[in-house]
Amino acid sequence: MVLVERSAEKYLLLNDELAISYRYTGDRWRHDISVLCPDGREITVASDEGADAAGRLTSPALQDLRLEELGNGVFEFQLLGQGNSAIYSAAVRFDGPARRIDFDYCARAAKSGATVCTASRYRICGENLAVEERPPFALALILGQGPAIEFASCGNDAPSKTECRCIDDGTSPLVVIGACAVPETESPKTNIRWRYTLSWRAAAP
Hints:
8-stranded antiparallel β-sheet, globular, Beta-galactosidase, Chain A, domain 5
């Protein structure tokens, strides 16, 4: 069973193991993933939004959101947005029975010479959490308690391969997953797509 909460500024999908939450903060939707632990829900990763020191977006800017229920415990968020002269769209499908969330992003420059964000970034928030890198296309986040989760890229036979890596910006570890090898400046006719999954397995008894 999936619990659904929705309002003008927050959407939440929650089952008995994991939750994905979208919150409208500032001028865009931000999301986080939390897992159910014996002491309650613990946020494991949160989308890293905003811009870096050079003014480049750290994650796609998404201002419009719609949630559809597809049946049998499956839901899909559909998002659109723009930022820094680029246009972004995303479909995020939550499949509770399969213990899986599919992320499908697309970016396109709105004008020649625009700087396009081609990857999603997540700040690792959980305590007592170990990062197990499985380069170049996956990594796992292992909690002391609660389900383990794994990020894995998809579509790696495409020209813009989706990579998955862990970096540290001096504040906290970050998960970066996307078309990391694609040039940041693109023409308006170029669509850049990156896809990845987040899956989880039940905690050991």
